[in-house]
Prior knowledge:
By secondary structure, this protein is of the alpha+beta class.
Amino acid sequence: MTFRVTHIDMHHRRRRLVVRNVCNRAAALAWVEQMYGQAWYLAAMHQIEGN
């Protein structure tokens, strides 16, 4: 599965990225927090992959 993730930290630094090959939303969020640290705001949307 592929998710589009938005991560905003306590300094209001926004990061938007695509996380691929994860089994669910929780795994995508955990991967991003592991990379960038604890988030002030964190959201993930499932991206439907086209042909």
